[in-house]
């Protein structure tokens, strides 16, 4: 054995000895300065977790954990039990909140009937959840990105999506920003930083986390990302993957769960056994805040605080809005089959978010019944007129289905489009070509 080899082995042995000595010394000092192991004072230093040692097996049972409390700013009468929780928004802002909720509610009723009449293929209403949309949107910056699920139309209303924008999308005509390629209620707006909704449940959650991570890496970032999803979507694998990525990558993302009680026809009690969705946050190392989703000021205050938190610390947060889906899940659902009418009546009256905000405004003499009746009539008239107009607008050119897939259309798509053109020309009497843009 060479002298150099011997020296290397000695150096390795010396290094290991020093490391072992240091670890033992640390353990001795640690043990001396802590209480005994039997009292749970000594703390483990495993890479996977750090907690106190105990001398008896202690099983952690879910029934022994207190549920996360639900923050409420005002009661059903529009009264703040703690006046300090009133965000003291201007009269103009509160009136916009109220009228945006009324606009959404009115438009929903007419478009729902439009589907029942066979004029559009599908629709989803937002009854009972208007406050979680408007309250959260008001607390965000217009530059913040939004990844919606399918029941966040109020966020778009707040940001300026027009009645014509909504109806053209539902009718899939050439004025639709999505060029008629999506199902109704799958909205999107680049100028409003609202990423187009997609049908697969939960896919928007990891996408939002990725966008937030990209924002974090930009110098002097002042934008966050918010993603909305229901408690049913939180059962998807995408949700769990997104929670873990958001936590480990420290992403400035607000994970906003609309817990409305039902995943289509499945009640929440059959969806999960734990403490809702906010209760999962601690397991991923994420902050959480739960609040009354029918109280627009609780939603506003919670979202505002969440936005400040994620941007200051570059960390995610789970928000859980506790509310009730008054409507059917969609036009493909009949909720009367799985819940009583008496239950609906409560949530559609005293617990309705529009009623609560109306009571708040009445106390401040900000509400005029006659003016609101005129406003509702005007909105109805505008929606009905837009439907009549949107129905007459031709569908996009069918060739556009081949476009926007690649930056430059590849050869195989060009060949397919040519084959389709030849087919349509040959059998044009079988296709409603007059309904499409030439």
UniProtKB/TrEMBL annotation:
<dbReference type="GO" id="GO:0005759">
    <property type="term" value="C:mitochondrial matrix"/>
</dbReference>
<feature type="domain" description="Dehydrogenase E1 component">
    <location>
        <begin position="100"/>
        <end position="397"/>
    </location>
</feature>
<dbReference type="GO" id="GO:0003863">
    <property type="term" value="F:branched-chain 2-oxo acid dehydrogenase activity"/>
</dbReference>
<dbReference type="InterPro" id="IPR029061">
    <property type="entry name" value="THDP-binding"/>
</dbReference>
<keyword id="KW-0809">Transit peptide</keyword>
<keyword id="KW-0496">Mitochondrion</keyword>
<dbReference type="InterPro" id="IPR001017">
    <property type="entry name" value="DH_E1"/>
</dbReference>
<protein>
    <recommendedName>
        <fullName>2-oxoisovalerate dehydrogenase subunit alpha</fullName>
        <ecNumber>1.2.4.4</ecNumber>
    </recommendedName>
</protein>
<comment type="similarity">
    <text>Belongs to the BCKDHA family.</text>
</comment>
<keyword id="KW-0560">Oxidoreductase</keyword>
<dbReference type="InterPro" id="IPR050771">
    <property type="entry name" value="Alpha-ketoacid_DH_E1_comp"/>
</dbReference>
<keyword id="KW-0786">Thiamine pyrophosphate</keyword>
<dbReference type="GO" id="GO:0046872">
    <property type="term" value="F:metal ion binding"/>
</dbReference>
<dbReference type="Pfam" id="PF00676">
    <property type="entry name" value="E1_dh"/>
</dbReference>
<dbReference type="GO" id="GO:0009083">
    <property type="term" value="P:branched-chain amino acid catabolic process"/>
</dbReference>
<keyword id="KW-0479">Metal-binding</keyword>
<keyword id="KW-0630">Potassium</keyword>
<comment type="function">
    <text>The branched-chain alpha-keto dehydrogenase complex catalyzes the overall conversion of alpha-keto acids to acyl-CoA and CO(2). It contains multiple copies of three enzymatic components: branched-chain alpha-keto acid decarboxylase (E1), lipoamide acyltransferase (E2) and lipoamide dehydrogenase (E3).</text>
</comment>
């Amino acid at each position: 054995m060479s002298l150099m080899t011997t020296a290397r082995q000695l150096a390795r042995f010396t290094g290991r000895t020093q490391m072992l000595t240091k670890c033992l010394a640390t353990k001795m000092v640690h043990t001396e300065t802590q209480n005994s192991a039997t009292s749970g004072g000594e703390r483990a230093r495993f890479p996977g977790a750090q907690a106190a040692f105990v001398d008896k097996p202690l099983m952690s049972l879910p029934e022994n954990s207190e549920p996360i409390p639900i923050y409420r700013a005002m009661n059903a009468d529009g009264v703040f039990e703690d006046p300090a929780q009133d965000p003291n928004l201007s009269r103009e802002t509160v009136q916009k909140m109220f009228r945006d909720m009324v606009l959404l509610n009115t438009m929903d009723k007419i478009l729902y009937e439009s589907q029942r009449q066979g004029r559009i293929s599908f629709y989803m209403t937002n009854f009972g959840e208007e406050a979680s949309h408007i309250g959260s949107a008001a607390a965000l910056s217009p530059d913040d990105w939004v990844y919606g699920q399918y029941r966040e139309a109020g966020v778009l209303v707040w940001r300026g999506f027009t009645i014509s924008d909504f109806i053209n999308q539902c009718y899939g005509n050439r004025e639709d920003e999505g060029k008629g390629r999506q199902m109704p209620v799958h909205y999107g707006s680049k100028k409003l930083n609202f990423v187009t909704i997609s049908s697969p449940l939960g896919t928007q959650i990891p996408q939002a986390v990725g966008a937030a991570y990209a924002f974090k890496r930009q110098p002097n970032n002042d934008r966050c990302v918010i993603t909305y999803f229901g408690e049913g979507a939180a059962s998807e694998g995408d949700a769990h993957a997104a929670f873990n990525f958001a936590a480990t990558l420290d992403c400035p993302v607000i994970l906003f769960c609309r817990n409305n009680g039902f995943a289509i026809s499945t009640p929440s009690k059959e969806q999960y056994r734990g403490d809702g969705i906010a209760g999962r946050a601690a397991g991923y190392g994420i902050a959480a805040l739960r609040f009354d989703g029918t109280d627009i000021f609780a939603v506003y205050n919670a979202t505002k605080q969440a936005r400040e938190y994620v941007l200051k610390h570059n960390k995610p947060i789970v928000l859980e809005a506790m509310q009730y889906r008054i409507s059917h899940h969609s036009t493909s659902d009949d909720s009367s089959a799985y819940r009583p009418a008496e239950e609906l009546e409560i949530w559609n009256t005293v617990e309705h978010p529009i009623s609560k905000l109306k009571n708040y405004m009445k106390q401040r003499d900000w509400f005029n019944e006659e003016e609101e009746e005129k406003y509702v009539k005007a909105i109805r008239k505008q929606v009905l007129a837009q439907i009549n107009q949107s129905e007459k607008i031709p569908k996009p050119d069918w060739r556009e289905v081949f476009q926007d897939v690649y930056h430059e259309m590849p050869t195989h798509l060009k060949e397919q489009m040519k084959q389709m053109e030849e087919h349509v020309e040959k059998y044009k009497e079988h296709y409603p070509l007059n309904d499409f843009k030439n």
